[in-house]
Automatic annotation (TrEMBL):
Its cofactor is heme. Keywords: Endoplasmic reticulum, Heme, Iron, Membrane, Metal-binding, Microsome, Monooxygenase, Oxidoreductase, Transmembrane, Transmembrane helix. Heme binds at C458. It is a peripheral membrane protein. One of its GO terms (cellular component) is endoplasmic reticulum membrane. This is Cytochrome P450. It comes from Anopheles coluzzii (African malaria mosquito). PANTHER family: CYTOCHROME P450 (PTHR24292), CYTOCHROME P450 308A1-RELATED (PTHR24292:SF104). It holds the Pfam family p450. The chain crosses the membrane at residues 12-33. Its main location: endoplasmic reticulum.
Length: 512
C-alpha cells in the first residue's frame, strides 16, 4: 500500500495533468455508486443502508453471516413492511416478506418469476445443465418432465422394501456405536447416501463400514470446488454478470468422470445381462429412454441430480430431527409410543402405508423442517415486468405499488418467515403439536416453505420425507437418543449454501 502510494505520488508530481482525469474518474465512479444506492429511496421503498463496495451483502461475502441470518436481520428490522429493498452488490433487489406476495411469486404469477437466481454456463457444466433447480426455460421443463415419474407415490412405495433394508442396516451400524458421541449429520449422511445409491443403482454403497466409502467420498467431492470455482460460485449467487466470464466448471473433473463411468458401466452390464433387473430409478430412466428420447448424458445427469439432492439435504433434516429429539425427551417418548402402537397393530410390520399413517411422526418432521429448512432462503429473478401491490404506504400515507423490472433479484426469507411469531407462536420452541389439527392455524399465503411452492417446488419432496421418516422410526424403536457430552449451541455454517450447523450436532444412542 505504501509503495503504491509512493509510486502514484511520484507519477502525479512529475505529470500533474495525469492526476486530473484520474481523480475525475474516481469521483465519477463514486458518484455513480452513491446515486445507484438511492434507487429504493427514489421508489419510496425501505432498505438497509448499503456499504460502498458490497451493497448489503458484506457480512455474507466475508462469511461472517449466513445469507439466511442476514435476511432475518432485515426481516425483523422492518416488521410491518410487505417487502424490503436491498442491494446485491450494486444491483437493486427485493426481499419479499408478505406471505401472499410470496405465494403469488411462486405460484399465481410464476411466469413473471420463472427462474431461480443462479447463472449456470451449460457449456462448462454439461451434467449440471440438466438439474431442474439450476436451469431455465425449455431445458428446465424437459428436465422436470424426465425426473417427475421417478418421484411419484407409487414409485416410492415400490422402492420401500429397498429403503427398509437400508434402514435396518443403519440400525445395525448404530448398534456398533452405542454410548459413543456421534455427529448427527455425518451419521445421517451415511444412511441417506447408502439409501439413495441403493434406490438409484441397486448397488451397495458400503456407507456403514469403518472406512470411508467411494460414494461418501465422491458425495463430499461434489461440494468441493477449485479456488476459481469457489469464486465463480460466489459470483453466480451475488454477481452473475461477472460469473459468466469465469471459464471454469462448478463440478470437479474427477466427479464428472466418476459419475459418467459409473452410469455407463451399469448400462452396459444391464444390457448384457439376461437376469431380471431391479426396478430402481436408473432402470426407470432406461425404460423411458425411447419414449423420452433421452440421451446418455441426460440419464447420467439425472442420476447425479438424484444422488446429490437425495443425500445432502435429507441428511441435514435427519440430523436436526435426531438432535431435536435428543433435546426433547418427552417428544421422543411420544413418538416412540405412536410408532410402537402402530407397528403392533400392523402385526409387527412396518410397511409404506403404516409409515404414512404415523401422525405424530409427521408433526415431528414438519416442525424440524420449520426450524431447520435446508433451503433457508429462496432466490428468484423477475423474468417479466411486474407490478407488486400489497398495502404498502409511503410516509404521506399513500397506498403504493412498485414496478419490478425484468432481471430484478428476488429473495424469499424462508427461515425468517418460519420463525415469525405471527405465524408460529414461540417459534424457538420445538413443538411438533403446533401442526396437530387441534392447534394448526392456516394463514393466508405461503408461510411454510421447506420445499418451496408452485411449479418449481422440490421434485424429491416425497422421497426425502419417506427416507427421513423411515430412519427416524427404525432408530427410535431400537434406541433412545440423548445429547452428547460436548453439545453446545450451534451456529449456522456461513460457508455453506445449505442451512447446517457449523461445528456439528453431538448425540449419543442408548439401547432401549
Amino acid at each position: 500500500m505504501f509503495l503504491s502510494s509512493l509510486l502514484l505520488g511520484g507519477l502525479f508530481y512529475h505529470h500533474p495533468l495525469v492526476a486530473v482525469p484520474l481523480i475525475a474518474l474516481v469521483a465519477l465512479l463514486y458518484w455513480l455508486v452513491k446515486h445507484n444506492y438511492k434507487f429504493w429511496e427514489i421508489d419510496g421503498v425501505p432498505y438497509p443502508k448499503p456499504s460502498l463496495l458490497t451493497g448489503n451483502l458484506g457480512p455474507s461475502l466475508t462469511l461472517k453471516k449466513h445469507i439466511s441470518e442476514l435476511a432475518s436481520d432485515w426481516y425483523n428490522a422492518y416488521p410491518d413492511k410487505p417487502f424490503v429493498g436491498y442491494f446485491k452488490i450494486f444491483t437493486p433487489a427485493i426481499m419479499v416478506k408478505d406471505p401472499v406476495l410470496v405465494k403469488n411469486i411462486l405460484s399465481r404469477d410464476f411466469d413473471c418469476f420463472a427462474n431461480n437466481d443462479f447463472l449456470l454456463d451449460v457449456r462448462q457444466d454439461p451434467l449440471l445443465s440438466h438439474d431442474p433447480f439450476l436451469v431455465t426455460g425449455e431445458r428446465w421443463k424437459r428436465s422436470r418432465s424426465l425426473l417427475t415419474p421417478s418421484f411419484t407415490g407409487a414409485k416410492i412405495k415400490q422402492l420401500f422394501p429397498v429403503m427398509e433394508s437400508v434402514a435396518d442396516a443403519f440400525v445395525t451400524f448404530i448398534g456398533r456405536h452405542v454410548a459413543q458421541e456421534l455427529e448427527a449429520k455425518e451419521i445421517a449422511a451415511r444412511f441417506t447416501t447408502q439409501n439413495v445409491v441403493a434406490c438409484t443403482f441397486s448397488i451397495d454403497g458400503d456407507c456403514f463400514g469403518e472406512q470411508e466409502s467411494e460414494f461418501r467420498r465422491m458425495g463430499r467431492r461434489v461440494f468441493e470446488t477449485s479456488p476459481m470455482a469457489t469464486v465463480k460460485t460466489m459470483m453466480a449467487v451475488f454477481l452473475p454478470t461477472v460469473a459468466k466470464y469465469i471459464p471454469v466448471p462448478f463440478l470437479l473433473k474427477d466427479v464428472d468422470e466418476w459419475i459418467r463411468s459409473l452410469v455407463a458401466n451399469l448400462i452396459i452390464q444391464r444390457s448384457a445381462s439376461e437376469k431380471t433387473v431391479q426396478e430402481d430409478l436408473l432402470q426407470s430412466f432406461l425404460k423411458n429412454r425411447e419414449k423420452s428420447n433421452a440421451t446418455q448424458t441426460e440419464i447420467t445427469a439425472h442420476a447425479l441430480t438424484i444422488f446429490l439432492e437425495g443425500f445432502e439435504t435429507s441428511s441435514v433434516v435427519l440430523g436436526f430431527a435426531l438432535y431435536r429429539l435428543a433435546k426433547s425427551p418427552e417428544v421422543q417418548q411420544n413418538l416412540y409410543n405412536e410408532v410402537k402402537k402402530r407397528i403392533d397393530a400392523n402385526g409387527g410390520q412396518l410397511d409404506f402405508d403404516a409409515l404414512q399413517q404415523l401422525e405424530y411422526l409427521d408433526w415431528v418432521m414438519l416442525e424440524t423442517l420449520r426450524m431447520h429448512p435446508p433451503a433457508a432462503t429462496m432466490h428468484k429473478v423477475c423474468t417479466k415486468k411486474y407490478i407488486m401491490r400489497k398495502g404498502f404506504r409511503d410516509e404521506q400515507g399513500h397506498d403504493m405499488s412498485i414496478y419490478v423490472r425484468e432481471g430484478t433479484p428476488i429473495l424469499i426469507p424462508v427461515l425468517a418467515i418460519h420463525m415469525d411469531p405471527k405465524y408460529y407462536p414461540e417459534p424457538h420452541q420445538f413443538d411438533p403439536e403446533r401442526f396437530s389439527p387441534a392447534r394448526k392455524v392456516t394463514h393466508e399465503g405461503a408461510t411454510f416453505l421447506p420445499f418451496g411452492e408452485g411449479p418449481r417446488m422440490c421434485l424429491g419432496m416425497r422421497f426425502a420425507q419417506a427416507q427421513v421418516k423411515l430412519a427416524m422410526v427404525k432408530l427410535i424403536l431400537n434406541y433412545r437418543v440423548t445429547v452428547g457430552p460436548n453439545d453446545k449451541p450451534f451456529a449456522i455454517d456461513s460457508r455453506s449454501f445449505v442451512y447446517q450447523a457449523r461445528d456439528g450436532l453431538r448425540i449419543v444412542f442408548e439401547r432401549r
